[in-house]
């Protein structure tokens, strides 16, 4: 029995050793190394008292070793991103760009990774204050990866970037370009998830240009055209309803239009899962209207904030 | 005091007759093998076969470092339960039968002990299933209480105290309740193996023992179970799991060792207690 037990425990240890040895260059161990390097990276960038240059150099070397050891695993892309970020923090933008370009060559064809790397590159340009670099990188995301989530939102992100940088003229230009882009997508992919998303993003672009009629028209059309629940999640439905309410009730004290839109929806789709929530919205809007007329007080937006949780909509 | 005497006797039995501990080493081996398999799920070649199961049940994230190590305690808990029920029901009775042989000064025969354990297997499996069901039901109830306590919003006063006790003390309350439940069932297993035969007789004998030696049985289970406390404390210390997630594996392996040690001490002590009154009679 003693010998059997010794044999069994030896097998257990040997199996563990063999498992680790055969997977020494595998994804899991690469992830483990990366996790440790990420923690070192966090410690450096979150150090508010100043990090000695030597620490940057050490971590850059470690990341380089990691990249060389585990290439061409997917996780290596994060190694490149961390190196690029470290170089960006140090103000070595040209070297950071080199890192991102090298990674882009290595992972060409893996769309999600490429988009992630391009976003990092755009972030690097933004920190360098290179507006043209940001624009070019986003243009690349928009043109080459148009249907990825970042590709879809790219035109809006770029416009918001210029707003943030107080470049009013370029921001307006970017919003107009975004509108053209989303209109093209709507034409190119009718009745699809792409059209649905493009409509929401188009409305968002019109919001910036304060063209509230267009916002309202788009949301009304979207709600009525894309009634199938698979298009929606809680966030998108709340966003559309709040946008409709803002464009009507809060801006013009117009209580009739939202009620008309929601009623039309309920009438058109009598057994729709959103109907209970929309009915509750109608009830609240009508109550708000009566209160506002009665007291003459300004519209209290908070009355709609505690509105239904939209349980009919799937979670995002 | 009798509980300590029983523990000393149990330890003496293990020390003088190494073969008595052999089934327990085998049980520990099975626990550790299960842990090893679960740890290696994200590695080749297991990833190909078990990866999709984890992916479907818990999500792709848990096949990656360090999230896999967050899931590992839960998976190991299920695995341990299965090993304990199906293999523990055989191996613990083997150990009990060996103690019986030693107690009656007969030569310790693994073969004979195994034969007795196989005969008692259905009854022991049923008893352990019953005990585990009660424990799982209690755990579910405790979870509900913890969830309710988490919703207490008082920042001071008795409700705040209750919330703190429930949130931070849950593992210890769980351990204490486990000991209480085990006190009411544990002696039935040695009773089945040492001669009661039928479950009803074993339970009757168990309740008689618990009634007669309530403090002794409780103490016999409680004292070795205290070894779980440092493990709970270490597990609760985020320093380990945050800086070195692999500590989870070491703590789980240590937990398995403690489990087997506690089981060994408890069942050896209870077997001796079961046999003692018989001798007196």
Summarize the helices and strands and which ones pair or pack.
The complex is a heterodimer of chains A (316) and B (281).
Chain A: H1 2-22, H2 27-45, H3 53-70, H4 76-89, H5 93-106, H6 111-128, H7 131-144, H8 149-164, H9 168-188, H10 193-208, H11 212-225, H12 234-252, H13 256-268, H14 275-295, H15 302-305
Helix pairs in contact in A: 2-3, 2-4, 3-4, 4-5, 4-6, 5-6, 6-7, 7-8, 8-9, 9-10, 10-11, 11-12, 13-14
Chain B: H1 2-16, H2 22-39, H3 46-58, H4 67-103, H5 110-150, H6 158-185, H7 188-196, H8 199-212, H9 214-225, H10 228-236, H11 238-243, H12 247-280
Any overview of this molecule?
The complex is a heterodimer of chains A (316) and B (281). Chain A has 316 residues and is an all-alpha fold. Helices cover 77% and strands 0% of the residues of chain A. The mean pLDDT of chain A is 87. Chain A has 15 helices and no strands. The relative contact order of chain A is 0.05. Among the domains of chain A are: 29-129, Alpha Horseshoe (Serine Threonine Protein Phosphatase 5, Tetratricopeptide repeat); 214-316. Chain A is extended and about 85 Å long. Chain A has helices at 2-22, 27-45, 53-70, 76-89, 93-106, 111-128, 131-144, 149-164, 168-188, 193-208, 212-225, 234-252, 256-268, 275-295, 302-305. Chain B has 281 residues and is mainly alpha-helical. Chain B has one domain (2-280). Chain B contains twelve helices and no strands. The radius of gyration of chain B is 21 Å and the shape is globular. At the A-B interface, helix 1 and helix 2 of A face helix 2 of B.
Largest interface: which pair? A-B, 18 and 19 residues
Largest pleated sheet of chain A: none
If helices are DSSP runs of H or I spanning 4 or more residues, what is the number of helices of chain B? Answer: 12
Distinct helical segment count of chain A: 15
Give the end-to-end Cα distance of chain B, rounded to a whole number of Å.
Answer: 22 Å
From the structure provided, what is the oligomeric state, counting identical versus distinct chains? Answer: heterodimer
Mean pLDDT score of chain B: 88
């Amino acid at each position: 029995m003693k010998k059997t037990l010794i044999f069994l425990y030896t097998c257990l240890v040997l199996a563990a050793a063999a498992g680790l040895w055969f997977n020494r260059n595998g994804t899991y161990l690469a992830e483990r190394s990366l996790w440790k390097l990420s923690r070192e990276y966090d410690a450096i960038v979150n150090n508010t008292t100043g990090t000695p240059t030597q620490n940057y150099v050490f971590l850059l070397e470690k990341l380089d070793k990691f990249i060389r050891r585990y290439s061409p695993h997917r996780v290596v892309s994060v190694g490149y991103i961390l190196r690029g970020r470290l170089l960006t923090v140090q103000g070595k933008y040209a070297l950071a760009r080199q890192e991102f370009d090298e990674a882009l060559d290595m992972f060409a064809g893996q769309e999600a990774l490429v988009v992630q790397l391009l976003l990092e590159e755009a972030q690097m340009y933004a920190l360098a204050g290179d507006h043209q670099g940001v624009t070019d990188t986003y243009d690349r995301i928009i043109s080459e990866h148009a249907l990825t989530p970042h590709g879809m939102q790219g035109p809006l992100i770029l416009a918001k970037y210029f707003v943030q940088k107080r470049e009013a003229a370029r921001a307006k230009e970017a919003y107009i370009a975004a509108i053209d882009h989303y209109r093209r997508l709507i034409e190119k992919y009718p009745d699809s998830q792409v059209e649905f998303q493009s409509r929401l993003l188009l409305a968002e672009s019109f919001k910036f240009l304060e063209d509230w009629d267009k916002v309202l028209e788009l949301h009304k059309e979207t709600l009525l055209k894309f009634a199938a629940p698979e298009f929606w999640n809680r966030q998108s439905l709340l966003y559309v309803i709040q946008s409709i309410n803002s464009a009507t009730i809060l801006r013009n004290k117009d209580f009739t239009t939202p009620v008309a839109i929601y009623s039309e929806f309920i009438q058109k789709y009598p057994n729709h899962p959103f109907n209970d929530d929309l009915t509750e919205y109608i009830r609240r809007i009508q109550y708000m209207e009566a209160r506002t007329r009665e007291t003459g007080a300004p519209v209290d937006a908070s009355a709609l904030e505690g509105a239904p949780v939209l349980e009919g909509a799937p979670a995002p | 005091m009798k509980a300590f005497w029983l523990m000393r006797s149990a330890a003496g039995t293990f020390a003088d007759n190494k073969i008595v501990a052999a089934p327990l080493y085998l049980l520990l081996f099975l626990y550790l093998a299960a842990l090893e398999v679960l740890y290696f799920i994200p590695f080749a070649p297991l990833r190909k076969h078990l990866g999709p199961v984890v992916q479907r049940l818990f999500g792709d994230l848990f096949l990656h470092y360090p999230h896999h190590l967050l899931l590992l305690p839960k998976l190991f808990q299920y695995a341990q339960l299965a090993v304990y029920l199906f293999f523990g029901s055989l191996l613990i009775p083997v150990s009990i039968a060996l103690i019986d042989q030693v107690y009656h000064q007969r030569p310790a025969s693994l073969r004979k002990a195994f034969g007795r354990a196989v005969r008692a297997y259905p009854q022991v499996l049923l008893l352990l299933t019953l005990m585990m069901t009660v424990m799982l039901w209690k755990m579910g109830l405790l979870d509900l209480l913890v969830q309710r306590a988490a919703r207490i919003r008082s920042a001071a006063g008795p409700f705040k105290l209750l919330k703190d006790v429930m949130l931070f003390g849950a593992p210890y309350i769980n351990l204490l309740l486990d000991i209480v439940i085990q006190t009411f069932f544990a002696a039935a297993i040695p009773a089945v193996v040492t001669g009661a035969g039928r479950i009803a007789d074993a339970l009757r004998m168990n309740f008689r023992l618990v009634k007669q030696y309530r403090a002794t049985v409780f103490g016999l289970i409680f004292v070795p179970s205290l070894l779980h406390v440092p493990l709970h404390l270490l597990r609760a210390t985020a320093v380990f799991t945050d800086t070195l997630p692999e500590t989870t594996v070491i703590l789980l392996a240590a937990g398995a060792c403690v489990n087997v040690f506690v089981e060994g001490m408890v069942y050896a002590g209870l077997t001796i207690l079961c046999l003692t009154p018989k001798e007196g009679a």
